[in-house]
Design brief:
By secondary structure, this protein is α+β, with helices and mostly antiparallel strands. It is built from 13 helices and 22 strands. The longest helix has 29 residues.
Length: about 575
């Protein structure tokens, strides 16, 4: 039997939309602002052999590790799954990210025949552990980071296992929110399963399975063609995690990318050994960064599925920071080391395909976790990531105030947070002069600050790029460093490190300033009218216009004057 190309395309589109609709169901049913507003969740469809066949455009670090979670989770469970069953897990050494990410997997049956799986992963605002939000910047072992859930049957025959609910509820700070978000994950899988079954009813199981094979083979052919267009060679790069959370010394990430015809090898030999702090990246996180980077530098119209990654060989030494041994802490590996991984991969590939690689983005998700008790004694927790500036690109500026690379979450509206949480927001704006200067300017970072209105709370920061700035490319300048300022209620100010846990009292304020992206190309080649526009928009100061671009700006008259002598002199000294 051979399925015609039109039917294959129809089935491909239906599977992708099924994954997207799963995400809509999850978001609309969720309790926490982290999922309902930030959309910190991801959904995908797998065939009966546990191969990825379709995914929604959600969170890259979730999606790239989802195949590992499905394969390892089902293997570790080992039991039989019937219609209406769902497997729950969050063990990072199986599911691939960190403990706050709960993965839920549902087998999809039609008439007693297993036809595939629907799966989703969602970031919960608390799963226990030493600090509210379960992302402590100073954890030294996995057990401090929260409740570890091995693969367990959370649903059996469509009914929730109340004993597991009781176990989870007894170990988290806000059980009503966590259970609400888990029910939203159930709704998402039910949605995906329903759409999958409708496809089989319309076309027949044999046709759908054959179409899925063709979809994956098609993606493989196109990805091999893209890799073949990259010049053969070995491309290497290195970068550093600026500290580990348990020590001040940087930890090196080294990658070598070998392109040989239509195949590609990613080798992490030389990367630092696993560390005591929470910046170890589980294998699934490292794989997710590799897959994301490969997709980013090739044709974006290639359907993302198992076929895309068949040309890829991975060499990631066991026991290094990018593939640690249990029970190394990993909360920051998912959110911070994942970003540095992409930075290093992009830097290496900029040697091979410079026209496809931007300068470095902020290199951090700027994770903020806080929680405590309200005046009435009720518990609360809050988690968010704050965007920064993306890097300048070969033909355009970076984007201001945006999440990049391994995160794809939305802004959390201040109005929604103030309605739910004991926080009063003081500022939310783009940071002038934070984007790296270049012919194509790096995007600007964000300033966001709030004051605690509850009696007390515990704050955790897990971030990067407060010591080592985002790098520019092709003569572009570095992006600005991040800053975290603790303003005590008595007026004292304190600069916080990028990884820490501290106690707050009512009236204390946190000021968050995120990094900007690196610039691309010589700043002296930037169009003066673009410099004027940036000054008028408050993104570049008058002083920086002269210092970095050799352009004198009169914003009141909307005029510019180029300092030709300065530009010529600087060109000669470069």
């Amino acid at each position: 039997m051979t399925v015609d190309s039109t039917t294959v395309e129809v089935i491909k589109g239906a599977l992708i939309y099924a994954a997207e609709e799963m995400g809509v169901a999850l978001r609309m049913s969720a309790y926490s602002p982290n999922i309902k507003e930030r959309m910190d969740h991801s959904c995908a469809i797998f065939d009966h052999r546990r191969r990825l066949v379709a995914q929604a455009e959600h969170i890259p670090v979730h999606l790239g590790s989802m195949a590992l979670a499905v394969r390892e989770g089902l293997d570790a469970y080992g039991g039989a799954l019937e219609p209406g069953d769902m497997i729950l897990l969050n063990d990072p050494y199986l599911s691939g990210t960190h403990l706050p990410d709960l993965t839920l997997i549902a087998p999809v049956y039609d008439g007693g025949e297993l036809i595939g799986y629907a799966a989703n992963k969602a970031h919960h605002t608390d799963v226990g552990g030493k600090a509210p939000g379960s992302i402590a910047g100073d954890s030294t072992e996995l057990y401090q980071e929260g409740l570890i859930i091995p693969p367990v049957k959370f649903l059996k025959g469509g009914e929730i296992n109340q004993e597991i609910v009781n176990l989870i509820s007894s170990n988290v700070r806000t059980p009503e929110t966590q259970m609400g978000d888990l029910r939203a994950q159930i709704a998402a899988n039910n949605t995906g399963a329903r759409r999958f079954i409708e496809l089989v009813e319309d076309h027949g199981a044999a046709t759908v399975h054959e179409a899925m094979e063709e979809i994956m083979d098609y993606s493989e052919r196109r990805m091999r063609a893209e890799i073949s267009a990259i010049p053969d060679g070995v491309y290497t790069a290195k970068d550093w995690m600026e500290d580990t959370g348990s020590g001040e010394e940087p930890a090196e990430v080294v990658v070598s990318v070998k392109v040989d015809s239509d195949a590609i090898v990613f080798d992490y030999t030389g990367t630092a050994d696993q560390v005591d702090g929470p910046v170890n990246a589980p294998l699934g996180v490292t794989i997710a960064g590799i897959y994301y980077t490969l997709i980013s530098i090739t044709d974006s119209t290639i359907p993302v599925n198992d076929g895309c990654f068949r040309p890829v060989t991975l060499l990631i030494p066991y026991g290094c920071m990018m593939n640690p041994r249990r029970p190394a802490p990993v909360a920051g590996g998912n959110v911070e080391t994942s970003q540095r991984n992409v930075d290093v991969l992009m830097k290496a590939l900029s040697q091979a395909v410079p026209e496809r690689v931007p300068a470095a983005g902020p290199g951090t998700m700027s994770n903020i976790s806080i929680g405590g008790q309200r005046e009435d004694g009720s518990p609360w927790t809050f988690y968010e990531t704050v965007g920064g500036g993306s890097g300048g690109r070969p033909d355009s500026d970076g984007v201001d105030g945006v999440h990049v690379n391994m995160t794809n979450t939305m802004n959390t509206p201040m109005e929604a947070l103030e309605a739910y949480l004991p926080l009063r927001f003081e500022s939310y704006a783009l940071r002038p002069d934070s984007g790296g200067p270049g012919e194509w300017r790096g995007g600007c970072g964000i300033e966001r600050s709030w004051t605690l209105t509850a009696p007390r709370a515990t704050l955790s920061i897990l971030a990067e790029r407060v010591k080592l700035p985002p790098w520019g490319l092709r003569g572009g300048g570095e992006g600005a460093l991040g800053e975290y300022i603790f303003r005590h209620r008595d007026g004292r100010t304190e600069r916080l490190p990028s990884k820490c846990t501290v106690n707050l009292q009512e009236g204390d304020t946190l000021v968050i300033r995120t990094p900007g992206g690196g610039g691309y190309g010589d700043p002296l080649n930037r169009d003066p009218s673009s410099v004027l526009r940036d000054v008028v928009n408050g993104l570049v100061s008058v002083e920086a216009a002269v210092r970095d671009y050799g352009v004198v700006v009169n914003p009141e008259r909307l005029q510019v004057r180029v300092e030709a002598t300065k530009r010529t002199r600087r060109r000669k000294t470069r």
